Amino acid sequence: MVESNWSNILQIKNLKKYFGGVKAVDSCDFEVEKGKITALIGPNGAGKSTVFNLVLGLINPDSGKVVFNGKNITGLKPEDISNLGISRLFQQTRLFNNLTVKENLLLAMDNKDVKFWKNLLGGNKVGKDKEKRIEQMLGLVGMEKFKNKISRDLSYGQKRLVELIRAVLKPHIFLMLDEPVAGVNPKLRKSIKGLLLKLKYQGETILLIEHDINFAFSVSDEVIVMHQGKILAKGTPTQIKNNPKVLEAYLGEQFSAGSS
Amino acid sequence: MISAYLIHLLILIGIYLILAISLQLSVGFTGLLNLGHIAFYAIGAYISALLALAGLPFWFCFLLAGIGAMFFGFLLAISTNKLKGDYLALATLAFTFVIYAITLNWTGLTRGPLGLPGIPKPSLFGFTFSDNFSFLVLVFVIALISYLIITRITKSPFGRVLEAIRDDELATRVLGKNTFKMKSYALGISAFFAGIAGSLYAYYITFIDPSSFTLSQLIPVLAIVIIGGLASLKGTIIATIILVLLPEPLRFVGFPSSIIGPARQMIYALLLLLILIKKPRGLYGRIELE
Q1: According to a count of CB atoms within 10 Å of the terminal CB, is the N or C end of chain B lower?
Q2: How do the domains of chain A map onto residue ranges?
Q3: Which residues in chain B have their CB less than 8 angstroms from residue A110's CB?
Q4: Cβ of B160 and A120 within 8 Å?
Q5: What's the complex ipTM?
Q6: A8-95+172-259, which class in CATH?
């Protein structure tokens, strides 16, 4: 049963994944609340991306379960999990390189229009509403004129923006973003931040992985700190900033290194 | 009889065109490095020949050649679902060898190396395609319909997903597309058209034996796909015409046929090298594979 008033859109319960001797994800427990931006932070190799891969079914956990919107999704196929309403941005750019920006975005949107027989026998025009929505979204980040560019020819930052828009355009109720601003210049970073906050005010639920602590703190409502596969701390950005455990294990070094 | 010779070449172009654009669908558009295409061609030819020799009508043999090949296409897709790139190429290559071995050794069905002679001329709605010109018209119409269907598929949202699978299958799955189903469709449709091309070949030559379906028969078709440019149907047409006609002048030089055969292969190899040096993406290729 899918409960519509579930306040936690995602629940991770005692999730474990070992790669050989490496405890990538070790007895993780956390929830993501509806309508909030939650940041998952932690040093490199803390297991953040592995958690994302486990949620999306790209890898299977050794034990534990993932509950999405009241439904146990552990062990489902990635496409089935995706169709329950999860949209993901990957850490590396994964645009369809030989297709245009528009085609990339259409691919995210037309999930019901790709049935083979319908395509062979019926009309295949791109609907006006889709066309409009694409232009509107590209307009938000100032990329309208790149609509018909082959995505292979875009710069890294532009690819990142198109990918972000693709993730937003994909029908979803939960957005998982793996380092949306990594390697992006400060100006773009600002517009991505604006986009994320705007999405939040529209009622979106977002879970994001972020290395830039200041960015994570400035945009999120909740912060989850991971360290060596375990959850080290959870709380509001202020709580996390003042948590001695976190400061010692992760932020302390980062902050002192960053401020010197 | 230069015109009979010309008609013969045009029929060959038509059959090769169906083979090449259907291979383009699996290799160029879906990114499945499918070396089993000639096996589907063989399956189509044998199904068609056996049924025709049993006295069944042309339309039935022709359609069943396509459907039978498509069935094997689905089987191959299911068994190679998890394979990618060169591993998929190897598995599909093995399929070509298996089908070849079956046509050669299942003598009870295929008469092995003796082949199946005496395939009757096709007839449709009471009209018999007894001369080569009428057969050319038939091949042309079928090639045109095949071309239109494959163009329609590749330009549709479904075709867009196939291209997405070629560029990044995992990202396609994460966008909620059942890529296994779609790859199976792509391989199945591709096999269907190879099957009907095989049927046309059997009806045209009226005799088939295993030697028409070896790996070396696959090379020209694959060469057409690469020279035309991956995912370009226009390029495929031009490349088909060039590659079928190119070795032909050799016939008029008066070389013995034992030289013409190997010379043809060498010309393919040279042309392939030249084009790949000058145009790495083929004549009209627009895609780059990672």
Answers
A1: N
A2: 8-95+172-259
A3: 157, 160
A4: no
A5: 0.85
A6: alpha beta
